[in-house]
Amino acid sequence: MARLTEGHDAPIAELVPELDRLAADVMADWKVPGAALAVVHAGKVALAKAYGQRDVEANLPVTPTTQFLIGSITKSFTATGVALLHNEGRLDWTKPVRDYIPEFRLNDPMASERVTVQDLLCHQSGLPRHDWVHLPGDRSGAELLGVMRYLELSREIRAAYQYNNLCYNVAGLLIERISGQSYQAFMRARLTDRLGMKASFSLGDLEASADAARPYMMHEDTRLPALRLPIRVVAAGAINTSVADIASWMRLHLGKGEFDGERLLPAALIGELHAPRIYNASPSFVGFGEEHYCLGFRSSSYRGDRLVFHGGGWIGWGTLMTLVPDFGIGVAAFTNRSPNQVPPTLTWYIIDRLRGRDPVDWRERFRKQREESVAHLQVDKNAREKARRKDTHPAHELADYAGDYEHPAYGVMSITEQGGALHWSWRGMFATMVHRHYETFELPEVPDRLLPDKHAITFLTNRDGNIVSLSAPLEPMVKDIVFVRLAAGDCTLAAFRERCVGSFKSGATTHHVTLDTEGQGSLAERRMPLLR
Q1: pLDDT tens, position by position, 474-514
Q2: Mind listing the pLDDT tens digit for each residue in 161-207?
Q3: How far apart are CA 404 and CA 468, in angstroms?
Q4: Which residues contact 151 (CB under 8 A, 6 or more apart)?
Q5: Rounded to whole angstroms, how far apart are CA atoms 197 and 244?
Q6: Which residues, 6+ apart, have CB-to-CB distance to 166 below 8 Å?
Q7: Measured between alpha carbons, how far is 24 from 50 in angstroms, rounded to an integer?
Q8: Rounded to 5 degrees, what are φ and ψ at 131?
């Protein structure tokens, strides 16, 4: 399904037949069920196009108004919302976050005091991702703010780019604190409604839409329906919209803050949002320049043209929004399968054609990349198995590992022993662990529910041989996260228990402490009659 605006320019019409062929081929390469495209050129929506199925099982087609989760393209909305408040003088984004949210804390006191609003927006707080703090989806944004003080930093403030969804959650809370509105209400009133965009902010809202895409994911080389996973860091990645509507967002930014004759932001402020702030990465392919992060956007160059862009990825979703500001070009590509390279393949083709260049064969480059990745899956499995120390055994009886283990930010992991195996549970997730080697067990790979697949769980003992903690590699930029064993309520020192046996009087009550046949203490009490 295609929709061309009236008075569209010739280059758009000319590229559509080849674009259709390319879309069909690259979607087949990556097993993507559905895709949608919007192209803005010379201030107008030049093309809105859809391919494939938004729901494979129901055989429903994608349309230009089909609702997709856009993932981290949401960050461009959040940063623009903060820019509105900065422009109105209601906050200064060069000032520390704690000037506006006094309870904001990081693990380092100096960083807590110095991190500014802009530092949040360009990922230079020193805090790595720590995504497993929010991924289970069982905590509110305010609760996530409260646990950030317990998360280890991996760099000094402003020393390096480190992508962080938790910091964008703070930016969303900042918008709420300053505006007095919920994040959703502020975004609707100040941005999406003024642009005529249909947008929502939760998984429930998406699923309630009459034209919502259904997400799909890959397990090895097999496509499956994706997990139903809400996003609690709303300001980092939870907006749902269509390519027909995101075209208005691209027009606003290509128009330097003006939309349909109305100025929403000063042009200079749009320039600040799009300006490179911190180095991100060297080019992955010839033809691209170095990548930097801006404020809610990324910047780079492609074949000499300046780019401002952001992608979005979540389980079952892959999106990309790209602006070529100096030539008035904007391309948005949404898909309902993760991960995949359909969005960049179609985007670079469209940009090449609109710029009058021979297109680079991105389909072939990415196809080879995918084939190598799929072929390497078994190699990775073999390498992991080779690293396992065979013929080793746990140092304790399995029942000794049972207990609750806590980290102040990551929560409580529970280990139980049943049927000769250890069973793990954590914040709604669960699995049976298998012994890997020595004191390390590992979680299985379970494609149909959220799990830290194949993660190792290592138990640690004190000098007396008692199991006191477990560790797990939940954030690769810091040391393994350590969960400390919680007291079970029973005293484990036999000599101390024996010395506690006896009768003890407290007021009108006498307490009798005895030991049972297992050596565990029990308490009985006898209340004396009160004098009347």
Answers
A1: 999 999 999 999 998 665 556 665 666 666 555 555 556 66
A2: 999 999 999 999 999 999 999 999 999 999 999 999 999 999 999 99
A3: 10
A4: 106, 107, 127, 130, 133, 166, 409, 475
A5: 9
A6: 127, 129, 130, 133, 134, 144, 148, 151, 233, 236
A7: 11
A8: -65, -25
